Amino acid sequence: MAEREYDASRYAPPAEVGEMELPHPKGFIGKYVWSQDAKVIAVQYGLTATAIGLVALVLSLLMRLQLGFPNSLSIIDPGSYLQYVTMHGMIMVVYLLTAIFLGGFGNYLIPLMCGARDMAFPYLNMLSYWVYLASVLILVAGFFVAGGNTGAGWTLYPPQAISPGTPGIDAGIVLMLVSLAVFIVGFTMGGLNYVVTVLQARTRGMTLMRLPLTVWGIFMATVMALLAFPALFVAVLMMLMDRLLGTSFFMPEMLSTGEGGDHQGGSPLLFQHLFWFFGHPEVYIVALPAFGIVSDLIATHARKNIFGYRMMVWAIIIIGSLSFVVWAHHMYVSGMSPYFGFLFATTTLIIAVPTAIKVYNWVLTLWRGNIRLTVPMLFSIGFLFTFVNGGLSGLFLGNVTVDVPLSDTYFVVGHFHMVMAVAPILVIFGAIYHWYPKMTGRLLNDTLGKLHFWITFLGTYAIYYPMHFIGLEGVPRRYYAYGETTFISDSVQALNAGISVAAFIVAFAQLLFLFNLAWSYSRGREAGPNPWQATTLEWQTPHTPPRHGNFGDELPVVYRWPYDYSVPGVKQDFIPQNVPPQAVEREPDAGRGGTA
Amino acid sequence: MTVTLILIALMMAAFVGWLLRQSIAVRPWVADSGQRPASIPAAFTASRVGLVAFLAVVVSVFALTVSAYLMRMEMGADWRPVPLPGLLWANSAALVLASLALQLAWRAAARGQARRLRQALAAGGGFTLAFLIGQLLAWQRLEAAGYYLAANPANAFFYLLTALHGAHLLGGLVAWGRVLARLGGGADATSLRAGVELCALYWHFLLLVWALLFGLLLAT
To answer: How far apart are the C-alpha atoms of B171 and B164, rounded to whole Å?
Structure first.
């Protein structure tokens, strides 16, 4: 392969950004509170999302307590149980997963991996975090108002979401809807930043096809989120009008104690269409960043180039596009035409193809790799297993005829927790173990990390595998208690107790992780600039942790893709992206084996 | 959802097509083979790309609302169309003038004519305010004639669509106000070009949205 002279001058932002252009912060408040540095904003997003996520975790424990050991805690009544269900789901999906992947990892990694000084619009970026924080606070306010949170389920289906009998129809539902609207506004500010930064602020030589897959995943997820969140926004506005101003977008005429209500003619189905037009892409908004990050973790810790890079990129693009035409598979039981259902079953199963390509490529990357079983690698392998398991049960639910009897049972709960809760969370953990050294300069403790992994990984299987069996018995989800039935066998209660015990163990194992985060911050082993011997630009910064402006005086120039691991004939088993071909040290007698 | 699907399909097709062109004949594993990214033309500045991305979001918002409008119209038997006040025609004319004025402002900024820029900007903002006040008057007339928000879904959608559109214009006025303030603060006309241009493009876009919404309201 001919190595031509590199002419970087033709496509590039200027290498040196004048000192004046970067708003340098002054003092503690400017640096860590009203910060416009994407790295600080990332940490703010991450900490806020983790804090609210812990609330949701506690709610899930309360639910498990009731299901495993009924009536053991008197504060849990049927109403509050529904509130726990609702808040747990909504927080985990929107306020934790979306926020931490896009706001957290997106903010930290996009500028560093693209070789940019900062986001394209730093001020907007800062605003995005504060608006997100406001939405979280509005959400939390729901815990303290009269009547408490809404108990409508995270899907907030009308009419029950705003009809008497559902918990929290006074202030709770209004706060939830307002909080969602505010979240979407804040996210849009951040999302525009991520897209423009990836498109505009890449350093010299960083072509789109030299971007790490992490950036690809976050980028595509952001594009989808920008187009899909408006559906939730519109639905939320219309529901707010139904609730506060007495319109009838979604509310049909309902008889309550023999009298007609204020509404008539509205269509609950309309809400379902809008909600799932957001809701299904949301699954991939969470999944695509996880796909991207795990690709980089696997390649780095297996010391091999990612198998089929272009295929991986195209798969991300295709998954992102297809996910807009599958939403109605959440509505098979809404009374839709069977032809409509067939159409959506088809598109749903087609999405399995690019997804399967990705799984094969991860496995083939591991194949004969020089696998280092570090904690990030363990979490990545854990993700592979969990994602495949959860994906396989998705094949059941994607088919209309199989879905109808399984709909609203614990089979569904088991499925989506495996595929979109546990799998992405494993990636988040892996990513934190991987990038913590860059963020703090110190490694997380390995022993604690391995313990954390094994308890979390095995524990989640102990939680969600039995749920599939319970679901196959037809046990419905969202029920506070089951009472006497003819179809639920006695052993279900024993299984439920076992699941709850496992859930408590897994939850307490997370304390290990939190302790590790705090302890290693000051006592962890010094990491140095590049502890994993990775190729991507964030590991090549002159300072660890990187300072404001990321790359010191001069931006890096990129000469190669991010997967030059174990290149034949080269001394080191990795070549960073900013190493020019003439600077690569070769084995003396190996000749020209590779293309590096 | 047909409207939304078509619009999102178009936007995604343009975007994905562009991405594929960037990636189809590339061998990413080759270091430094002289491959160029189809470098983004100089015309695509960060703020323009940001605006286009934002407009895509706004397209999504309005497409979904219009989809909901069309679906709701079919779903309930209670749909009684709103007789549109004739005032809306005058409002539309004001919005067209606002858009034109901002186009002139853009040109004046490009040529560095501070005085004309100030006049055109002021005219643009004035016509926009006239439009917004006109919309409020139209609401009042409908209310006076008994077409309350909650009385019929057609009314509700009319208020929702006009309010959404008005809110976007108000957001635009914030940007417009910032440009005007910088001009008042003695900024050079050419240095304001980028800001004025974003305003003008945004106004043209909202004019188009209004034309489509108005057409939809007239047709149904």
So the answer is: 11
Integer Cα distance of A93 and A137 in angstroms:
17
Closest CA to A97 of A57, A127, A157, A125: A57
Write out A48-90 in H/E/C secondary structure: HHHHHHHHHHHHHHHHHHHHHCCCCCCCCCHHHHHHHHHHHHH
Of B22, B34, B150, the CB nearest to A209: B22
Q: What is the ipTM of this complex?
A: 0.94
Other C-beta atoms lying within 10 Å of the C-beta of residue A171: 17
Of B9, B29, B49, the CB nearest to A196: B49
Query: Which one, of A393, A494, A397, lies nearest residue A67 by Cα?
Result: A494
Report CA B75 to chain centroid distance, whole Å: 29
Summarised one tens digit per residue, pLDDT across range B17-51 is: 988 888 888 888 888 755 455 456 777 888 899 99
Asked if residue A389 belongs to a domain, the reply is: no
Burial class, A479, CB count within 10 angstroms (exposed 0-12 / middle 13-18 / buried 19+): middle
Range of the domain at A551: 538-596
Residue at which a domain ends, from A156, A178, A205: A205
pLDDT of residue B78: 84
**pLDDT score at A462:** 96
The per-residue pLDDT for A11 is 42
Residues of A in Cβ contact (< 8 Å) with B72: 249, 266-267, 270
Give me the CATH number covering residue A156: 1.20.210.10
pLDDT on residue B195: 92
Q: Tell me which residues of chain A have a pLDDT lower than 70.
A: 1-26, 256-260, 589-596
Each residue's pLDDT tens digit, B100-148: 999 999 999 999 898 999 999 999 999 999 999 999 999 999 999 999 9
8-state DSSP, A260:
E
Nearest CA in chain B to A210: B28
Structural tokens at position A117: 């000084």
Look at residues A284, A422, A418 and name the one whose alpha carbon lies nearest to residue A355.
Answer: A284
Chain A residues with CB under 8 Å of B57 CB are 188, 191-192, 226-227, 230
At B150 the three-state DSSP class reads coil
The rounded distance, in Å, linking the Cα atoms of A499 and B41 is 57
**CATH architecture entry for B2-7+45-219:** Up-down Bundle (1.20)
Domain count, chain A: 2
Cβ atoms < 10 Å from Cβ of B119? 15
Beta carbons of A221 and A320 less than 8 angstroms apart: yes
Interface of B with A in 63-92 (CB under 8 A): 64-65, 68, 71-72, 75-78
Cis link prior to A23 (omega < 30° from 0)?
no
Considering A176, A205, A234, which residue would you say is the last residue of a domain? A205
